[in-house]
Amino acid sequence: MRFLTLFTFVLVGSNFLPPADPAAGPTQIVPTFTCTVANVHDGDTIQCAERGADGRRLRVRISGIDARELDGSCAPGHPCASASPEAATATLERLVSGQRLQCRFEGYSYRRLSGFCVNGAGLDVSCAMLASGTVAKWERYWGDHQCR
């Protein structure tokens, strides 16, 4: 029988950050993390001012949604939003630029953390982006997430 060792940390008021990549060390599950938005990469990815264990700025893939790629294409196997990548990026910038977000850690995606994030006013970023019509809902990663 094989065993998977997980170190679970429930930290309140801590600046502990999960590793930026699973290869960076033992698996650590952190229910939430903070992201002070430094910039918006595209319609579903942001970069945080906070840094991971590897010293790089954290990148966060907003969970449950998918925007077109920067070249306007839709990645194979992904849902395809009808809006342009520029429209999605501009909407995400308007919603989160410079804000401090609280994110629920959902996993990793291409060296990015994945998470459902809310701002200080309680705005759910995934839900707001979906309501804007600039992204597509990705059922596979939406799970039982609820918009309020």
Structural description of this entry:
- With 148 residues, the protein is α+β, with helices and mostly antiparallel strands.
- It has a single domain (10-141), classed as OB fold (Dihydrolipoamide Acetyltransferase, E2P), CATH 2.40.50.90.
- Helices cover 16% and strands 33% of the residues.
- It has three helices and nine strands, in the order ββββββαββαβα.
- The strands form three sheets. A five-stranded mixed β-barrel has the order 3-4-5-8-7.
- The N and C termini lie far apart (43 Å).
- Residues 1-17 have low confidence and may be disordered.
Quick recap of the structure?
This protein has 148 residues and is of the alpha+beta class. It has helices at 85-96, 125-132, 139-142, and strands at residues 7-8, 28-29, 32-42, 45-51, 57-62, 65-66, 100-109, 112-118, 136-137.
Element layout with pairings:
Elements: E1 7-8, E2 28-29, E3 32-42, E4 45-51, E5 57-62, E6 65-66, H1 85-96, E7 100-109, E8 112-118, H2 125-132, E9 136-137, H3 139-142
Parallel strand pairs: 1-2, 5-8
Antiparallel strand pairs: 3-4, 3-7, 4-5, 6-9, 7-8
Main traits of this protein?
148 residues; alpha+beta; OB fold (Dihydrolipoamide Acetyltransferase, E2P); 5-stranded mixed β-barrel; two-stranded parallel ribbon; 9 strands; 33% strand; disordered N terminus
How many domains? The number is: 1
Alpha-beta classification: alpha+beta
- CATH-derived architecture: Beta Barrel
Average of the residue pLDDT scores: 85
Biggest sheet strand line-up: 3-4-5-8-7
Q: Which sheet architecture does the biggest sheet show?
A: 5 strands, mixed, barrel
CATH topology call:
OB fold (Dihydrolipoamide Acetyltransferase, E2P)
Shape: globular
* Helix content range: 10-25%
pLDDT under 50 segments (min length 5)?
A: 1-17
Number of helices: 3
What is the succession of H and E elements?
EEEEEEHEEHEH
CATH class annotation: Mainly Beta
How many angstroms separate the termini? 43 Å
User: How much of the residues is beta strand, in percent?
Assistant: 25-35%
Rg (CA only):
15 Å
By DSSP, the count of extended strands is 9
